[in-house]
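Dear colleague,

As promised, here are the two records you asked about, laid out in our usual form so they can be pasted straight into your sheet.

NAME FIELD: protein one
SEQUENCE, THEN STRUCTURE:
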Amino acid sequence: MTDEPTFQAEIASMTAMILAGGLGTRLREETEFKPKPMVRIGTQPILWHIMKLYRKFGVRRFIVCLGYRGDVIRDYFLRHRLEQSDFEVDLATGDIDILSPNLSDDWKVVLAETGAATSTGGRVLRALPYIKGERFFLTYGDGLCDVDIAAVYRYHREAGRLATVTAVHPTARFGELDIGNGLAEGFLEKPQIRQGWINGGFFVMERGALAGFSGDEVNLETDILEKLSANQQLAAYQHSGFWQCMDTFRETQMLNEMWASGTAPWA
């Protein structure tokens, strides 16, 4: 069994790939001019919050798969250090001297252009050459969670499968009623669904999970994950804590309210 310092070092050496190229059509109020991962929760885009979660467990290297309005994400990372720092600019030469560098985000970020119309699996395949090693983290650019990344990784190692998905209980869109004898015996506003697990992202993937797949049309969910599941090569880490995707303007508002209150579960 791997000792804890070695285990932590192993996680820290890995790369997290984030799918950030979709159109986000159900969030048109925010995504007409920017990709969904750049919609802000507080003062930072949801993409930053996702990366912070991985950094909490030691991950410093990221691959962001670009597509729709990838230029907005490129500009964000190119300007990120300057926006967080005091600096002096020499207008004659254009030289910039950072006076008070921001050291809180010590990430290395690969910005990989994966095509505007490429499917989810195709994006992973396009970015795969930038992965170092045989194993990597993978998630979507529009979901927040308080999952223990180290626990997911340990589960993956012990399961010995080609991939592991974090299974979650989504929050119900409507209130839940317990009815008996014609009376509402219990009422819970927007509870976490009690039955049924869904794909919550936050994967661990082996390179071998992608063997035999090629082309931009490959879909992560209906092609890769379904094949892995059929071959009993997809482990499922069951997470009963907080998970929330950001598909609608209402969900964006809810996540912002959580962040503003100081009680954001993912922080």
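NAME FIELD: protein two
SEQUENCE, THEN STRUCTURE:
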Amino acid sequence: MSKLKILSVNISEQKGTVKHPVESITLTSTGIPTDAHAGKWHRMISLLGTESIAKFEKKANRKIGFGEFAENITTEGFEIFKTKPLDLLMNDEIILQITQIGKHCHGDGCAIYREVGNCVMPKEGIFAKVIKGGEMKAGDVLEYHPKIYKALVLTLSDRASAGEYEDKSGARIKELLEEFAANTGKIVAINHQIIPDDATLLAIEIQKAVSEHVDYIFTTGGTGIGPRDITPDVIKPLLDKEIPGIMEMIRFKYGQEKPNALLSRGVAGIMGNSLVYTLPGSVKAVNEYMTEIFKTLDHLVYMQYGLDVH
């Protein structure tokens, strides 16, 4: 488990100015009450590692003091800018959720830039919101817990569930999710199941996944118009919010050349904190759908958590 040692805690009364070290800070649901950046937003706390500061010191040829880059918390341990939104920093008392990596630089319109001559925060500083508050001071330690995304891949097929047919489409979704995790550096725990085309069983499995806070739910099969194609009919009434544009665009894009693609009734939406996608039951369709879904997957997750991540 990676750990961060707190070297300094710092505050400022005005935004865009250097912060000064203090003996301790109180973290609340809106940040540090005595700091200019406190508020009900996703950048209430800023952190910067000495690993980043040291690189700038070499370029500037001078020592940089704690808080000079306007960080609330100066850390030591690992390069924190390599973390990701929704990861956690925590100890027995405090939980911080990372919300943003870097920020827009205001250049010479910022007091920090004018005083220091540059700023490392836009590239290597990170921001967080307080999930659980408490007192923090230099010498404290935070443990790093990367976000583990949970995914359910649910294949609907009477034949595959009976062992009469190999489930290729569900296996392909699992494979693509593993590639997505490897390419993005995310940790994705995948649960792959096969069930018959049964409306009651489908609803039970989906609602169970939502109650377990599964992040991604992908079904494959049952999106056509056959007598056993019931997936969209079960899923759509359960959605809290439908996201129609994704499936409409996929049908339009691939249906221009292959009109049969227009016959899928797949839907996408949100149930609780789960993103739900119903895909057709062919490997080719899975490849097409997942290619488009991956383009917006991260943004949708961050929107759910109220993060303005660019």
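A couple of things worth noting about protein two: The chain has two domains: 3-145, 148-304. Residues 15 and 168 are 55 Å apart (CA to CA).

Best,
R.
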